[in-house]
Input
Amino acid sequence: MTEFCAQYSRDVGEPLAGTATHAQSNLLLSWPIGHWTRTYHQAKTMTPEVSQAVRELVESGRRINLIHRADQPRGVHRAYRMPECEAFDIPTDELHDFLTALQQGRPLDSWYAGSVEQRIVLCCTHGVKDKCCAKFGNASFKALDEASQDYTGEFEIWQSTHLGGCRLASAALVFPALRKYGRIEPEQAMALLDAERRNQPYLPCYRGDAALSPAQQMADIEARNQLQRVGIEPTRVSIITEQSRDNGDQHFEMQWQTSDASGNLSIELNPITSVRYATCADIDAGEPPVEHPTWQPQVVDPSR
Output
C-alpha cells in the first residue's frame, strides 16, 4: 500500500476540479523555512507578541501564509497583502508594530515597498505539515523557479506553507488571480507559467478559481476544457444561470467570449463519491480512506 496520500489520490482518480477553496483576503509573510511549524501561519522563532498578532489577524478573517526564498535578506520580512496587491518590507523588530497596524486599519506607509506588478506564485513545500508537500512540492518549486527565469520580472516564485489539499501535491496558488493548481509535475512548470502569462489557467493541473464555489469551479473548468478541444481560448467564461436539481445534479448555463467571438455551453454536473486520505498522517495511523462527495461533469450541448 502507498505511503503517500497524494499517490493514493492519483491512483483512485480523485478529481482535481472543484478543490480550490481559499480565503479571498491574504497576507503572505516571508519567514525562513527551517523555522516553520505544522501550523501554516506560525514559526518557532516568532516572539509571543508576533505569534499572537498573527493569530488575531487570522481570527479576523485574513489568511496568513508563511513564504520563503533563499535570497530574502536576513532581518527583513517581505510581505504581500492581497487582493490589495501591496508589498511591504518589515524589519524583524518592527513586525509586531506592522501586524498591529494592519489589524487596526492604521497606515502602513512606513513599511510600504510598492505595488505588486508581477504574479506571485506560491508552491507548497510544507514538509513538516505533510510529507507529500516535501516529496512533490520541492521538485515543482525548483522547476517553477527555474522556468520563471525566462519571464524576467513577470513572476516571483516562493515556497509556501499549507495551501490546502496535501493529497493533491504538489500544490500552487497564483496571486492576484487566485488560481489554484495541483499535481504539478516539474516538466509542466514552463507550460503553467506560459498559460498564466496569457492570463489563462493551465488546465491539466487546474483546481479552480478560488472566488467560485466548488461546483462553479468544476463547471468553469469543464467549459474551458470543452472550448480548448475545439481550439478556443476564451478571454472570459461566465456563469449565466445555476440550478440545483432534486437528484443532486447541478446545471449551469455558461457564456464564453474571445476578442472576436462568443457562445454558450450547458454544463451538467452529476454527483459522485470519491475516496481519499486527507493527509499522510491518516495512512500512517492506519485509518481507512474517507468518502467525499463531488461531481462528474457532462456537457449537454456542444459550443455554439
Notes: The CA atoms of residues 113 and 181 lie 28 Å apart. The chain has two domains: 5-18+119-301, 26-115. The mean pLDDT is 96.
